[in-house]
Amino acid sequence: MGSRLARLLLENTDAAVTVVSRHAGGHDGQFGDRLRHVSFDLSGGGNLTTSPKDIVVNLTEVTPPSVARQVVERGGWFLETSATPGYLSAIQKALEGTPGGGIAILCVGVAPGLTNLLAAEIATRARDTVHIDIGVEMGMGRHYGFAATEWFLRTAGQPYNAFVEHVPREVAPGRFRRKLAFRSGHPPRHAIGYGFAEQQVIAERSGRQLKTVRSFVALDPAWMTRLLAVLLALGLGPAIGRKARGLTRWLLRTPAIGRSLSRFVLEGFDDAGHLTGRIRLETGDQAKATAVMTYATIQSILERGRPEHGAVTTITDHLSLDAALRMLRRFLPGTQVTDSFADDAGKPNEMLG
Predict the structure, then answer these.
(1) Residue 138 and residue 219: Cα distance in Å, rounded?
(2) CA triplet 152, 155, 156: central angle to 5 degrees?
(3) How far apart, in Å, are the Cα atoms of 48 and each of 41, 51, 205, 261?
(4) Fewer CB atoms < 10 Å away: N or C end of the chain?
(5) Is 185 helix (H, G, I), strand (E, B) or coil?
(6) Are 52 and 76 in contact (CB under 8 A)?
């Protein structure tokens, strides 16, 4: 994802890009001095030198939360892409009471990120919405990076907080289950509750409107979802989490299966359990889509500058859903969106986004 984002920035802006990683890297010279590589082990707790104009995008959870504070204290931008609730909470805690004129943006990417924007759209257009379910279908048609694959497996063993009736409730992955139709006119598919960070952020930032926000994941091909559900039901989630690194090495050696698409469906419900709105979105594979969403956020920063609100923000404070969709369609032309909201007569209106 980092290489995709760097290329998007270098090809579409005048920005200079510095790539920071533990290992030495190089480039073909295509972008001259605009592309620089720095070998630096962030996990060692060293001081990352930044300036007030820098936009820092964090793509790894080995980065100490103190780095986020350092960037904001120096007046820079810190964009956080993590989907792990515990890590995101540590970032938020580190940023509490941060002096300086910098801005942190949480939930940048697809899930979280795009899902936050879609949830905000439902909550805004259907004001009687009190419950939102978020479904993410991940195509297995190509291998994801080592860190992303390890994260998914590690998360299988970690309980997470889901907001249910305004109360953060600790649940294990797979505890919630339901069927979701990721494509209109197609049968619903099994999806299992999973610890994506945005469900807590969305609930907290809605004020008192949203009582319940839950995230679900499905894998393509469908039998992979059923297999994961069985393993979690047997109580093997913690074992999968402990063995995540070794399992990741093994999985990355196996052939890719399924499609390399990402699909999302979000559904809102009122207090009586009636559907208030539904949005479906299909786009390219998650690494490409995440890079595009991060690029769109950076473009919004370059165009709009600093917001008036506090130092800790989320993607919904900087990027509109319309702007995000324009970027996705530009770089991933197969992106499709449909939405359905109940009209005054209680009948759904289908519209192509």
Answers:
(1) 5
(2) 95
(3) 10, 10, 30, 36
(4) C
(5) coil
(6) yes
Residue 285 main-chain phi, psi, to 5 deg: -65, 160
DSSP-derived secondary structure for 54-82: -EEEE--TTS-HHHHHHHHHTT-EEEE--
| Mean pLDDT, the chain cut into blocks of 10 residues (353 residues total) | 91 91 67 84 74 91 91 93 93 88 94 97 96 93 80 92 91 95 93 95 92 95 93 95 93 83 95 96 92 96 76 93 97 95 54 36
Assess contact for 102 and 52: CB atoms under 8 A. yes
Task: Give me the amino acid identity at 268.
Answer: G
Instruction: Give the CATH number of domain 110-285+333-352.
Output: 3.30.360.10
Q: Are 207 and 190 in contact (CB under 8 A)?
A: no
Tell me the pLDDT tens digit for each residue of 288-341.
Answer: 999 999 999 999 999 887 766 678 999 999 999 999 999 999 999 999 999 999
Check if the beta carbon of residue 263 is closer than 8 Å to that of residue 303: no
Q: Tell me, which fold does domain 2-109+290-321 have in CATH?
A: Rossmann fold (3.40.50)
List, in order, residues 6 or more apart from 186 with CB less than 8 Å away: none
Of 31, 50, 9, the closest CA to residue 20 belongs to: 50
% of the chain with per-residue pLDDT over 90: 68
CA distances from 287 to 30, 37, 81, 148 (A): 23, 21, 12, 9
Distance separating alpha carbons of residues 239 and 292, to the nearest angstrom: 34
Burial string for 210-243 (b: 16+ CB within 10 Å, else e) reads bbbbbbbbbbbeeeebeebbeebeeebbeebbee
Contact predicate 93/309, CB 8 Å: no
C-alpha span between 135 and 214 (Å, rounded): 9
**What is the residue extent of each domain of the chain?**
2-109+290-321, 110-285+333-352
H helical segments located in the chain: 2-12, 65-73, 85-95, 115-125, 146-155, 198-205, 222-233, 237-242, 244-251, 286-304, 321-331
